[in-house]
Amino acid sequence: MDFNVHQAFASAGESLRATAHDLFSIWLAVQIAEIGIAAGIAAAAANVAQRRLKLLELTSGWPGPLREFCRLVLANIGTLVFVLVVGVMHGAMLSLTWPSRSYLLGVASSLATAWFVIAVVAGLIRNRFVYRLVAISAWTFAALSILGLLQPTMAALDSVAVVFGGLRISPLLVIKTAVLLILALWAATAAGDFFDRRVRSATDLTPSIQVLIGKVARLLLITFAILITLSTVGIDLSALAFFSGAVGVGVGFGLQKIVSNLVSGIILLADKSIKPGDVISVGDQFGWVTNMGARYTSVDTRDGREILIPNEDFVTQHVVNWSYSNNRMMLIARFGVSYDSDPHRVQEVAVAAAARVPRVMADPAPVCYFEAFGESSLDFSLRYWIADPSNGIINVRAPVMLALWDAFKREGIDVPFPVRDVRIRRAPAETPKG
Description:
Helix content is 58%, strand content 13%. It has helices spanning 5-18, 20-23, 26-52, 55-58, 64-75, 77-96, 103-122, 128-146, 150-159, 171-200, 207-232, 241-253, 256-271, 311-316, 343-355, 394-411; strands spanning 162-164, 167-169, 279-282, 285-292, 296-300, 306-310, 319-321, 329-337, 367-373, 378-386.
């Protein structure tokens, strides 16, 4: 039902005019002075309490929620003292004179009480943006209700509306929907984070299944929060058919990649071809999967960079998963020795040197192959396995190469290097033409 703006504010104007005679008198100055005195007492009391009370010592060993509640009460102790002092003053004024002469004290006490309660309750919210939104919205609602302006304000905001696609949109509807939607999404995200932590602690689930369950649960919670919000504010979901059609067109024209990455991420989590902790290479990118999101997968290259690869690339491109069936990974060290060396002895020395490196696996054991007769060296390849590629590869290759160098020096095996002779010939002198 629509209300006229002027009619909505008429009732509020009448109530204000009814008390105007008493407010604009000496009693108004008395009440303002009492409020100022109460504010000074509250500020002094809060300063003393916050300096003298050692909250950490007093609440040591208490449950976490109770300690947080005590911290919030101490942070707002000034407001609490102000409420108590103004309440005493208001009671004294009511017993001595007409109620209209202490109206301002009653309003100040009610507003301060509302602010104290809202600050303590909303302070339990850790998200600062949501905390401010809840505090401001709740106190504005309480203040308008205390002043008797809530109904006129809501009527005024609802009196101006636009009908769009069968949906009546007013400023009141927009405000209610925005506030409730933000709170619902925050609650859904918090619940999703809690559920995700519980799922990740389940050791009987594989990492990919843990991520899949967490993502699906978060998506369902957010969808449920949106539907509940729209139903709460009275929006008929059938009226959103026009917007759903527009979204479908947008998906068809401009959001193909986003949807493709989302679907690809679900496929990767379901078939477990890629999971957190895997060592992979996509194109020329090589690293460890650290996180799988709805749109991209984060790959740590261990050089200070973290590459965000779209999920679609893992489905459409050639992907090498070094730890798909197991975490073992084979590394190859190629080297050459001089022709004066005994190939059999070189193989024995190389295998023994690699076996002494801590991270090199004993089973399967390192092997060394004589591969070719090179131009200036006998060419070998040393192949060895590691069981923890996620801890790095270069920090295994380097110790193995140093172990080979030390072993060859100790055994007198030379590593050749190319030697080139440069001959400079003088150009023949030109015969003079004659």
